[in-house]
């Protein structure tokens, strides 16, 4: 965002300049040839006209507060990103663990998920190749074109596509951005390709939710390069060039693929990995917060009834887009174990955070309502501080239990 | 189960909502329990839950309704929730014949996992989409007769038939129960840890309903 870039600029003008698109290969940018400038000035004008909108102001403030909290961290991240020809992933992880500014989130996620190469010289070329590969795969699987009719696909694939089409309009319903026809198409192709390429899992409801933080972060990355910021109701046709949408789509596909590769057994039949995670969660809570555990037990609430969704959708439904992206910074920085291991400790920390509230509810229906969705009302006001505390608590729990599984037996 | 004083009831019946993905199960639930409708509600992951009390034949009946995910993938997990259910609303979308074709598979799910005497009502939802009607009322009705199911068409969007559907199935369960007049040990019925069927007159009741 402009505020943060200004802040960085004052401290080190050279660095600020370096962070322009041309200096960071692979960032989501349109072609550097002329055309972009014209689009930009037009787009900014449109942006300013919209500026009075209350929703947007609120969104701006959310983005601001999250970024200000991570301002110092941003300096470190820019140091890591820009100073060396080969990025040191360990350094990057340790900085990103504490939260990323939304201007560099997309780039760092691509790196930490192993999609973007650490060597700066190779980055542009590799990303270009992978993005091309994605689009060839889309053509190859019979899903080219703008419409929803794809006569070339098999009957099984038609059933799969139908399920995806049922879920598209139900993806993040409160965020109009995801309901723009271009983004619905984007989601359809990403989910379909992932599903046909991963037949052991195929499409599972909730995978659509997992695309949203990626799309959000990559769009934000592009907009911030152009001194704008993302809002829930952004006019996609006007603000995002087609070329950028295509890059966002292929990057979302590859990053989703990387994320899911660490938790494949969450989505295979009967979802064994997920069930194991829910079981571990119940054991952690039994050990660390027996009052809460007993309260849930005595009211007949089973962990599987609410934590199933937490593990299936990786908490995307429990937080708003700003907060879940921040939370995922830490998960992604945990490497391959972020979602398979650290996630369960985050869920335990989350229950701990609301332990008192939950223990204060004595009606089964009310308890269930709170755990199923009521929590989101309480996390809506969360900023950097609350997420940091949650992640720290998760870290402490992980340190206590991860290497001493006997305690959870 | 702890119960709020203002929510006293004579009977607690567990009812499940099943059927293909996207037929409107969650909206039937929210229309009935909260009088709300969301054109684009999120897909249900795992299960969701809501309660509502109604009056039937002078008794207060609290319905504990479990809304399940429709995707076939989730059936192994959602079928666990059939345990202890005395009623099932089997929902299809009147504008999508495929969802009606799958009704038989859902009946098999119930046969395999639910109590034998569960009361089942076939619900053709989205009756407001008249111009797209793909499942004729007669076709669904004769299917229902053939399989001994109650039948109704509803629209969660404009509320048509929603209250009637729940009222009818709950009343039917109550009547069957009264007719049998069983006083089995409630523990035998099992399943509803959260809220055993409680008769506030002091008698335990068998939760099992019966097929109509």
From TrEMBL, chain A:
Ranges of Basic and acidic residues composition bias in the record: 56-65
Pfam family, one: RabGAP-TBC
Domain Rab-GAP TBC per the UniProt entry, residue ranges: 99-335
Regions that span the bilayer: none
GO molecular function: GTPase activator activity
Spans annotated as Disordered: 1-71
InterPro entries given in the database record: Rab-GAP-TBC_dom, Rab-GAP_TBC_sf
Top-rank taxon, per record: Eukaryota
Cited PANTHER family: LD44506P, TBC1 DOMAIN FAMILY MEMBER GTPASE-ACTIVATING PROTEIN
Name assigned to this protein: Rab-GAP TBC domain-containing protein
Protein source organism: Triparma laevis f. longispina
Lineage: Eukaryota, Sar, Stramenopiles, Ochrophyta, Bolidophyceae
Automatic annotation (TrEMBL), chain B:
Gene Ontology MF, one: GTP binding
UniProtKB keywords: GTP-binding, Lipoprotein, Membrane, Nucleotide-binding, Prenylation
Superkingdom of source: Eukaryota
SUPFAM superfamilies: P-loop containing nucleoside triphosphate hydrolases (SSF52540)
Any single GO CC term annotated in Swiss-Prot or TrEMBL for this entry: endomembrane system
Keyword Nucleotide-binding: yes
Keyword presence, Lipoprotein: yes
Localization, UniProt: Endomembrane system
Name used for this protein in its record: Uncharacterized protein
Family recorded in the similarity comment: Belongs to the small GTPase superfamily. Rab family.
UniProt topology in membrane: Lipid-anchor
Transmembrane segments: none
PANTHER family named among the record's database cross-references: DRAB11-RELATED (PTHR47979)
């Amino acid at each position: 965002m402009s505020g943060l870039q200004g802040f960085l600029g004052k401290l080190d003008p050279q660095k600020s300049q370096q962070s322009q698109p041309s200096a960071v290969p692979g960032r989501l940018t349109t072609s550097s040839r002329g055309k972009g400038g014209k689009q930009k000035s037009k787009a900014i004008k449109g942006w300013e006209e919209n500026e009075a909108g209350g929703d947007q102001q609120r969104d701006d403030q959310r983005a601001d507060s999250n970024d200000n909290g991570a301002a110092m961290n941003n300096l470190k991240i820019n140091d890591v990103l820009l100073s060396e020809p080969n990025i040191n992933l360990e350094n990057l992880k340790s900085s990103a663990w504490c939260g990323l500014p939304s201007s560099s989130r997309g780039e760092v996620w691509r790196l930490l998920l192993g999609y973007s190469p650490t060597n700066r010289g190779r980055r542009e070329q590799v990303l270009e190749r992978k993005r091309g590969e994605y689009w060839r795969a889309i053509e190859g699987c019979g899903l080219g074109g703008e419409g929803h009719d794809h006569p070339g696909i098999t009957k099984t694939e038609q059933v799969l596509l139908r399920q995806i089409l049922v879920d598209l309009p139900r993806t993040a319903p409160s965020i109009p951005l995801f309901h723009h026809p271009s983004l619905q198409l984007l989601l359809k192709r990403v989910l379909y390709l992932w599903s046909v390429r991963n037949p052991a899992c195929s499409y599972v409801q909730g995978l659509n939710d997992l695309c949203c933080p990626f799309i959000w972060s990559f769009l934000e990355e592009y907009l911030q390069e152009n001194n704008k910021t993302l809002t829930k109701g952004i006019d996609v046709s006007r603000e995002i060039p087609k070329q950028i949408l295509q890059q966002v789509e292929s990057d979302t596909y590859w990053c989703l693929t990387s994320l899911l590769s660490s938790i494949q057994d969450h989505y295979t039949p009967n979802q064994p990995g997920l069930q194991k995670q829910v079981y571990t969660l119940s054991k952690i809570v039994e050990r660390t917060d027996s009052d809460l555990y007993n309260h849930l037990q005595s009211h007949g609430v089973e962990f599987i009834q609410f934590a199933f969704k937490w593990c299936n959708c990786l908490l995307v439904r429990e937080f708003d887009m700003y907060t879940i992206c921040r939370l995922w910074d830490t998960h992604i920085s945990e490497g391959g174990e972020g979602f398979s291991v650290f996630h369960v400790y985050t869920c335990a920390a989350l229950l701990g955070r609301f332990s008192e509230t939950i223990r204060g509810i004595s009606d089964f229906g009310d308890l269930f309502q709170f755990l199923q969705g009521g929590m989101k009302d309480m996390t809506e006001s969360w900023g950097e501080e609350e997420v940091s505390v949650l992640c720290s608590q998760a870290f402490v729990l992980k340190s206590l239990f991860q290497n001493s599984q006997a305690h959870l037996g | 189960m702890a119960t709020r004083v203002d929510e006293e009831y004579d009977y607690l019946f567990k009812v499940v909502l099943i059927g293909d993905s996207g037929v409107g199960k969650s909206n039937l639930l929210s229309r009935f329990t909260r009088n709300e409708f969301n054109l684009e509600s999120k897909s249900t992951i795992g299960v969701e839950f809501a309660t509502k009390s109604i009056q039937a034949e002078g008794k207060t009946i609290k319905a504990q309704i479990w809304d399940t995910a429709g995707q076939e993938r989730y059936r192994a997990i959602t079928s666990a929730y059939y345990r202890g259910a005395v009623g099932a609303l089997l929902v299809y979308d009147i504008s999508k014949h495929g969802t009606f074709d799958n009704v038989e598979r859902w009946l098999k799910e119930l046969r395999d996992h639910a109590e034998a005497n569960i009361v089942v009502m076939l619900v053709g939802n989205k009756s407001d989409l008249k111009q797209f009607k793909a499942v004729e009322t007669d076709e669904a009705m004769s299917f229902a007769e053939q399989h001994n199911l109650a039948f109704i068409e509803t629209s969660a969007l404009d509320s048509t038939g929603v209250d009637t559907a729940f009222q009818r199935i709950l009343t039917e369960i109550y009547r069957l129960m009264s007719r049998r007049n069983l006083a089995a040990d409630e523990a035998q019925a099992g399943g509803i840890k959260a809220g055993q069927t409680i008769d506030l007159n002091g008698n335990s009741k068998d939760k099992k309903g019966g097929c109509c």
